[in-house]
Amino acid sequence: MERSNLRILTETPSLANHFVAELRNIHVQHDSLRFRRNLERLGELLAYEISKTLPFAEQTITTPLAETNTMLLVEQPVLATILRAGLPLYQGMLNYFDKAYSTFVGAYRVEEAHTELQINMEYLASTDLHDKILILADPMLATGRSLVKAYQGMLRHGKPMQVHIAAAIASPEGVAYVQEQIPEAIVWLGAMDERLNENFYIIPGLGDAGDLAFGPKI
Ligand SMILES: O=P(O)(O)OC[C@H]1O[C@H](OP(=O)(O)OP(=O)(O)O)[C@H](O)[C@@H]1O
Ligand SMILES: O=c1cc[nH]c(=O)[nH]1
Ligand SMILES: [Mg+2]
């Protein structure tokens, strides 16, 4: 795993630690409204941290009393996410990058213990990605297969100039796979966990993010 393009919010004590702790806590995470809202709050913090690395330029603003100069984003990024579980994290990012265009990917893991994980990708609706700053948000970076498959599909809609991948919780194996497949990406995490289990779930992790946010899939 390469550390130079990796940023982990909970390595520094901040409110991010509280949001991740509540997401994981079995006594809190059953409150689905709070679970979604904590993913959204983490998305807001990740968006703020990413914004510090984006291009800004000085612009003049007119107040009712005078003119003043300030640094503003040169362009909004494109925000992309993977349905379902990505929605609350994405919404937090959209709260801050409030004029961003969006790309949606429908994908889910077909989980069979001890065998190679399959990702079904059945839907992709994208804005033009050519030369854009792309932020791809998905709360759980487990094996990294969903993110890489989504990104490869998105490349049909243009090659971004810059790629940021944002997740609430990741495994070291998943981050290494994403870095190998998308070496140009900067990876932003709420937390880095220990490992994957035999069902490719993150340990300690938080369980199934999509089910906790939206209910069990049948
Ligand atoms: O890194 P990976 O091993 O690919 O796993 C991560 C994926 O798993 C979850 O989605 P899931 O397949 O559970 O679909 P859901 O959002 O419908 O719950 C999660 O939101 C990621 O998209
Ligand atoms: O730990 C995991 C892995 C994939 N998807 C989840 O929601 N949790
Ligand atoms: Mg799920």
From TrEMBL:
Classification via Pfam families: UPRTase
Gene Ontology terms, MF aspect: GTP binding; uracil phosphoribosyltransferase activity
Annotated Phosphoribosyltransferase domain residues: 15-215
InterPro entries per the UniProt record, alphabetical: PRTase-like, PRTase_dom, PyrR_bifunctional
Presence of keyword GTP-binding: yes
Statement: the UniProt record of this protein carries the keyword Calcium: no
EC number: 2.4.2.9
Keywords assigned: Allosteric enzyme, Glycosyltransferase, GTP-binding, Nucleotide-binding, Transferase
Functional pathway: Pyrimidine metabolism; UMP biosynthesis via salvage pathway; UMP from uracil: step 1/1
Cofactor or coenzyme needed: Mg(2+)
Enzyme class: transferase
SUPFAM superfamilies: PRTase-like
Catalysed reaction equations from the record: UMP + diphosphate = 5-phospho-alpha-D-ribose 1-diphosphate + uracil
Protein's job: Catalyzes the conversion of uracil and 5-phospho-alpha-D-ribose 1-diphosphate (PRPP) to UMP and diphosphate.
Family: Belongs to the UPRTase family.
NCBIfam families hit by this protein: PRK00129.1
This protein's name: Uracil phosphoribosyltransferase
Species this chain originates from: Pontibacter arcticus
